[in-house]
Model the fold of this input.
Amino acid sequence: TQHLFFDCDTGIDDSVALLYLLARTDVDIVGIASTAGNVPVDVVVANNLAWLSLCGRGEIPVHRGPDGPLVAPLMTTEETHGPLGVGYAELPTSDLPVADTDAVDAWLDAAHAHDGELVGLVTGPLTSLASAVRRDPGLPRRLRRLVIMGGAFHVHGNTTPVAEWNVAVDPEAAAEVFAAFGVDGAPAPIICPLDLTETVALLPDHLVRLAAAAGSHPVEYLDPTDERGIRSVADNPLVRHLVDAMRFYLEFHDAHDEGYLAHLHDPFAAIVALDPAVARTMPAQVGVELSGALTRGMTVADERGMWGGAPNAAIATATDVDAVFDHLIETIATLARQ
Ligand code: BDR
Ligand code: CA
Done:
């Protein structure tokens, strides 16, 4: 059994990542850190609790992270993820309690409880993790593996021309995490950057396949030209919420000339966290630009040893996208069938 600690800013694709993790019955989800990013931290907490309630997994603790980044003011992106972070989904309010421990201490507790065994997965800004490393610099050495969705190396950014969202929201936190891992016996993080995660593009057909695999009523409204397509007709509640969330994300990408598709950044990172072999990786020394007037939040990789240092990260560079979707659909369908 792998022990996983999940740190996210839920978020539509974070939601899919969470459902995927919940479906993986071979994994012990030690806890969930809710970090401010796509939406304010209290909304992230509410979304995580709501998904756990829907899936009957109230035993997993949900921890509240800091109100905002280490240094920068918080930016959120309701434009991308909807006013409540889950697109058009109307999740029932959860009556589950938020955990007493904050997300920063929860990172430390999880690493102590599973010393040398813990797999960390971050699909939001690195604020909570960086704060935990500040609180206990011994944390990185206790992890078995760290997988981060973040950064953009040889493609344009999605937040500034050069910066990816999770790094752009809290560049100082990202820089501190990259500096603390991959040295002194701490594992080098596997970074899943936009370069690769933008190729993991969900199409409406994938949702139709998911509904079918879950034994749900077919998803019929997904034609973007169909103005009557207000909400999902899927009769399975989990599939319906997922499709309602995803429809917002499809429209967002469409409105930004990417096509009627949706980049599944965070679910891909979740798969890599549990099965690193699904991604080919390249070692590199990675840093974050903090001061550039035009380039703040840019991730820079020295792939040729020009800085003279040792690699501190492994950048995921390639995967079998069709196999990723087959696996994702089949796994989440098992959850929806329950
Ligand atoms: C990342 O930004 C967020 O909006 C997504 O959830 C993902 O984690 C992609 O840049
Ligand atoms: Ca995210």
